[in-house]
């Protein structure tokens, strides 16, 4: 009997020891997995920067384009008729995808601000990186204008407009002030194609304010953007020898040359209530700049050798140009205007689809070590 009791005690001790060992192994395994996840997240945050909001800019502008095409119009073209027949589900899916991507990017950048604040400071001081700080707010304003559940003259729209516009104005005060008060940050020395994002932010804010019926506010933002655009446009044309030189991989940002006048034409249409002479002049300017860049493919040859996130800089300008062409075709009602609209729409959609496919098949290259903005930031001294 004593022997049987001893065997039972041994079995209980062995089972308890085994359970305790398994528990320890699970705890150690959980700690290892958690550390790997934290290391992966830290690696992502170290390479992540505001330039990745090019993706949300592209998706947000594409959503606004299709909302405009699906909206009420006196255009009797076949395209408009077909789009009005289609079910709104594809548009809702696209808007939801754009919202998901923007929320994800915003959370990543918020984490970067919390855990890599010195890098964010360095990015703010960089002549290229600082301009992409406008991109998140522009993306949110684009999604706000295309939101299927929020009407322009409601309280949620008003509150969100203020939330997205106030950071834009604060960035304007900081950057525009530096352009004419700081010796080493004069516009002639820091101007580059990405500087036009600051202008685009004001123009998109003006367009969103015009939808609410805030005429004076929209004119204020439009004037702030258009005056600085004229100065910036002349400065970029003159190309001072002391100005910043972009690496070849960032050459897709040259497409922002025709994005700014395209957005300006749309903003002025929202203010004036019609696609009048001013809107047409801005649209023709953007069309000319687009044509000038298309006939210079060698400018983009180096940047197209290997996929990188800078490729997304092609989509947003093409989409807003296509959006301006739809308003122009609706106003003119001519066959040439409609052919131009269909051509730009096709290019815009194909470029976006191509970028999405390339991104899906090259996800490992999204956070590459040779990212041009990361390389530029790494050559700057860290801010204490």
Automatic annotation (TrEMBL):
Topology with regard to the membrane?
A: Multi-pass membrane protein
The Gene Ontology biological process terms listed for this entry are: intracellular monoatomic ion homeostasis
Q: Where in the cell is it found?
A: Cell membrane
On whether Transport is a keyword of this UniProt record, the answer is yes
Keyword set includes Cell membrane: yes
Residue stretches spanning the membrane: 92-111, 132-151, 157-176, 197-214, 220-237, 249-268, 274-295, 307-324, 336-361
A single GO CC term for this protein reads: plasma membrane
- Principal place where this protein is found? membrane
A UniProt-annotated Pfam family: SLAC1
Q: Name one GO molecular function term.
A: voltage-gated monoatomic anion channel activity
Keywords per UniProt = Cell membrane, Ion transport, Membrane, Transmembrane, Transmembrane helix, Transport
Q: Which InterPro entries does UniProt cross-reference here?
A: SLAC/SLAH, SLAC1/Mae1/Ssu1/TehA, Voltage-dep_anion_channel_sf
Self-association state and partner proteins as the record states? Homotrimer.
Q: What is the stated purpose of this protein?
A: Slow, weak voltage-dependent S-type anion efflux channel involved in maintenance of anion homeostasis.
Stated family: Belongs to the SLAC1 S-type anion channel family.
What's the name of the protein? S-type anion channel slah1
- Organism (species): Quercus suber
Q: Which gene encodes it?
A: SLAH1_2
